[in-house]
Write a structure and sequence with these properties.
Layout lengths: L1 H36 L2 H10 L9 H21 L98 E2 L3 H11 L4 H6 L3 E9 L5 E8 L5 H10 L4 E2 L1 E3 L2 E3 L1 E9 L3
Antiparallel strand pairs: 1-4, 2-3, 2-7, 5-6
């Protein structure tokens, strides 16, 4: 039922409802006119003689059928789902991105390696006919070897491990990272430097490119990549411009700067 209503649409339902009401009104008017055109005494005689063709006894039935159809049509029109259009600002669209794409606590499971059967060791025993012919093995120990012989300390050749590279970042901080001057100024800077790709113009490509990046401790942007694009060269243009962005104000967590990951939408619209 719902699929049929979706196929017809609200305009079709309204047209059907109005047409049904017009038909019912014309039917009632026709029945009333026919009754008025017949004299009373003749109508009574006809009712007695030809009771099977009496139209009056079907009036209530037709009225109930018409009202039932009208009520069902009206209820179906109210139940028909109407799509809603939502208009969001560019900055508010960031919250629509699935947070699981940027969850810093996501752990990549370790791959399961196939079990390798150990290769059995084959021990070959050589039988000796006469054990007297076996020559003794003599280990020659030099006379100057004593327990006081010094052994080089291997700790001296130990190399310190390189400093660990910081890879952690946050998506929400006490004080989020921001462009110097505000996001309004950032989008103005972005609009002056983005060039609409020629391929996208020819193909009529429009939409929003969602770009993800990290604001480092010194305010520079790194790991710039597209998480949802539209093609036509728009994705590459958005990444190119963001890589040339001026330094941002880094995020603050407990009084110190931290790395922060952000996602922003960049709109491409043809005039």
């Amino acid at each position: 039922m719902i699929d049929i209503l979706k196929l017809i649409g609200p305009e079709g339902i309204l047209f059907f409802f109005v047409t049904l009401l017009i038909v019912l009104v014309q039917l009632f008017r026709y029945i009333i006119k026919k009754r008025e055109a017949t004299p009373t005494h003749l109508r009574n005689d006809l009712q007695k003689k030809y009771d099977s063709v009496n139209l009056d006894k079907y009036t209530s039935f037709f009225r109930m059928v018409g009202l039932s159809i009208a009520m069902v049509t009206l209820l179906a029109a109210f139940e028909y789902p109407t799509p809603r259009s939502v208009i969001l600002d560019d900055w508010e669209a960031q919250n629509l991105i699935d947070e699981t794409l940027f969850d810093s606590s996501f752990v990549i499971p370790e791959p399961v390696l196939p079990k390798v059967k150990p290769i059995p060791k084959v021990i070959t025993i050589i039988e000796v006919d006469d054990p007297k012919d076996v020559t003794d093995i003599i280990i020659d120990i030099p006379e100057d070897f004593t327990s006081e012989t010094e052994i080089e300390d291997p700790v001296e050749n130990f190399n310190e491990p390189d400093e660990e590279v910081i890879t952690e970042f946050v998506t929400i901080a006490e004080q989020n990272a921001s462009f110097k001057g505000g996001m309004g100024k950032f989008y103005k800077w972005l609009g002056r430097r983005i060039k609409y790709p020629a391929q996208a113009k020819r193909m009529g490509v429009e939409g929003k490119v969602f770009v993800q990046f990290i604001i480092e401790l010194d305010g520079k942007l790194s790991n710039v990549k597209v998480v949802r694009g539209i093609g036509g060269g728009c994705d590459e243009e958005a990444v190119r411009v963001l890589k040339s962005s001026p330094d941002w104000k880094p995020a603050q967590q407990r009084g110190r700067a931290v790395r922060m990951q952000m996602v922003i939408p960049i709109s491409f619209q043809l005039n």
